[in-house]
């Protein structure tokens, strides 16, 4: 079936679009270490391309383990002074950083679209979302309370303090190049930690622009360091961040397999860790649900960022009584609402996939599902967009087997398989029959079922009658093999604090 293409013939020159960024000081090609812009000691650089055109937009400093070690030294030296600043001082600087981000949101959104492909309006939404974490943790810095514990003896007093962990090594993915950094870094800085960040090699520009704005806000040298590296150097950089004894905390967002490797490496020095790993979110539509509402929420939940989100719906289970109606409404909405094209083209709300390997994985999962009997009813092909790039049509399938990779593994692409179910017990068994548990969604108007299903889903986050759950005020994280720890909310700052108990004899 046909797909709307938006402005598929819109001519794009990635370098020309980069030149349209008003403040060119936000376009940085070097690493940011100890308050200075520095190249790699090897003088090597790696190429960054626009996934919507496959054109080169710049060559960024390719830092290796030795370079990262120097950044860790700088962060360690800065920690002594930064950890002793008052919570109010840190809060003030974070608020200034937030103001800088919001004042430059248009440039930051354009830069993000060029390096990761998401439509400009969606990129602007991420800038606001990312900035919200800076604002939130600027406030939480002043609320990292300890406790006075009632002593069992009249001759002693017991106090619990919270103190910053130390230097934090932070590794972030390509799909949210601003928000994944601010969600971690703002919490760390609010707690009194210093950080060394390794952004995804596909999307380093957003991270480096944040450094420029942090410097303008007055965040001191050595507190916030960013060390981009190529895919080739990634293993040694990751190992340095997880084994360097000066780093006391590691935070990672990415695949479960890589998370397990980093956890293993970090165990050598017993670092504190938080891991936000892969998901395989069920999206369940019960027979009493509002079909139109569920279909509209699925559009948002499944196809935002072209399906490249860890919390997007991966398996859609629809009750047999409303299956045909739901499929009809949903497919009509897909064809009506989604417009494919380069993220800077007017009217586009569905951009390219960020990497060729992600596109290839999407194609492979689709082919294996079709071979096992699935039927494609919308999409199913690479999209022919004049700008070139990694475009794949939003795709809807029915008659999908429970045994194919599309069902058993995270897709991270715009494939939407719709399955039938008949009973609540059956669908809960199928929904929980995966090793991961990040997010889950379901639609029902039965209040008893709402509590039963929400409590039974083996996930860290549940959306009930809604397909969007991410916010700075709520804890983000999963269970099972989806990770350890929580980000955002009042719980997020605790990931960067140690608890110290004092027993004081009178």
Total number of strands: 22
General form = globular
Q: Could you describe the largest sheet, including whether it forms a barrel? A: 7 strands, mixed
Tally of alpha and pi helices:
15
Helical amount among residues, as a percent range? 25-40%
Strand content: 15-25%
Distance, first to last CA: 79 Å
Contiguous uncertain segments of 5+ residues:
none
The radius of gyration is: 23 Å
By secondary-structure content and strand pairing, the structural class works out as: alpha/beta
Mean pLDDT: 96
- The largest beta-sheet arranges its strands as 14-15-16-13-12-18-19
Give a topology summary.
Blueprint: H1 14-19, E1 31-33, E2 36-38, E3 45-49, E4 56-61, H2 65-82, H3 87-103, H4 105-116, H5 120-140, E5 147-149, E6 156-164, E7 167-171, H6 179-191, E8 194-198, H7 205-217, E9 224-226, H8 234-243, E10 247-253, H9 256-266, E11 272-276, E12 281-285, H10 291-303, E13 313-319, H11 323-337, H12 356-371, E14 375-378, E15 395-398, H13 405-408, E16 415-421, H14 424-432, E17 436-437, E18 439-443, H15 447-456, E19 461-464, E20 479-480, E21 483-484, E22 497-505
Parallel strand pairs: 7-8, 7-10, 8-9, 10-11, 12-13, 12-18, 13-16, 15-16, 18-19
Antiparallel strand pairs: 1-2, 3-4, 5-6, 6-22, 11-21, 14-15, 17-20
Enzyme class: oxidoreductase
GO molecular function: succinate-semialdehyde dehydrogenase (NAD+) activity
Protein name: Succinate-semialdehyde dehydrogenase
């Amino acid at each position: 079936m046909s797909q709307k293409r938006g402005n598929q013939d819109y001519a794009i020159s990635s370098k020309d679009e980069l030149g349209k960024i008003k403040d060119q000081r936000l376009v940085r090609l070097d690493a940011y270490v100890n308050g200075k812009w520095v190249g790699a000691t090897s003088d090597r650089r790696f190429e960054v391309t626009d996934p919507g055109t496959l054109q080169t937009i710049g060559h960024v400093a390719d830092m290796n383990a030795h370079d990262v070690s120097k950044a860790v030294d700088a962060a360690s030296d800065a920690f002594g002074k930064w950890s002793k600043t008052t919570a109010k001082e840190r809060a003030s600087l974070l608020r200034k950083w937030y103001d800088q981000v919001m004042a430059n949101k248009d440039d930051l959104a354009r830069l993000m679209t060029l390096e990761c492909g998401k439509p400009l309006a969606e990129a602007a939404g991420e800038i606001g979302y990312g900035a919200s974490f800076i604002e939130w943790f600027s406030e939480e810095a002043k609320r990292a309370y300890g406790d006075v514990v009632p002593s069992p003896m009249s001759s002693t007093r017991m106090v619990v303090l919270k103190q910053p962990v130390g230097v934090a090594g932070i590794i972030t993915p390509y799909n949210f190049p601003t928000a994944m950094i601010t969600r971690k870094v703002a919490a760390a800085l609010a707690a009194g930690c210093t950080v060394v960040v390794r952004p995804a090699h596909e999307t380093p520009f957003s991270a480096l622009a944040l450094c420029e704005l942090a410097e303008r806000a007055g965040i001191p040298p050595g507190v916030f360091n960013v060390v981009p590296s190529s895919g080739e150097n990634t293993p040694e950089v990751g190992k340095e961040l997880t084994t360097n004894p000066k780093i006391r905390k590691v935070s990672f967002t990415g695949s479960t397999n890589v998370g397990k490797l980093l956890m293993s490496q970090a165990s050598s020095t017993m670092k504190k860790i938080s891991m936000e790993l892969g998901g395989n979110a069920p999206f369940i539509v019960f027979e009493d649900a509002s079909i139109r509402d569920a279909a509209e929420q699925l559009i948002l939940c499944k196809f935002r960022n072209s399906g490249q989100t860890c919390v997007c719906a991966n398996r859609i289970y629809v009750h047999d009584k409303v299956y045909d109606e739901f499929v009809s409404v949903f497919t009509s909405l897909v064809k009506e609402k989604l417009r494919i094209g380069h993220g800077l083209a007017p009217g586009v709300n569905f951009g390219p996939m960020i990497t060729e390997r992600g596109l290839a994985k999407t194609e492979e999962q689709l082919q294996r599902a079709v071979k096992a009997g699935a039927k494609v009813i919308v999409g199913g092909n690479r999209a022919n967009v004049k700008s070139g790039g990694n475009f794949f049509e939003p795709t809807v399938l029915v008659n999908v087997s429970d045994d194919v990779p599309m069902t058993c593994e995270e897709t991270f692409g715009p494939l939407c398989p719709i399955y039938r179910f008949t009973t609540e017990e059956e669908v809960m068994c199928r929904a929980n029959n995966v090793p991961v548990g990040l997010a889950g969604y379901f639609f029902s108007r039965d209040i008893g079922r709402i509590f039963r299903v929400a409590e039974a889903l083996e996930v860290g986050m549940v959306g009930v009658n809604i397909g969007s759950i991410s916010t700075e005020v709520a804890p983000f994280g999963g269970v099972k093999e989806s990770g350890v720890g929580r980000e955002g909310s009042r719980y997020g700052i605790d990931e960067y604090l140690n608890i110290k108990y004092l027993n004081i004899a009178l």
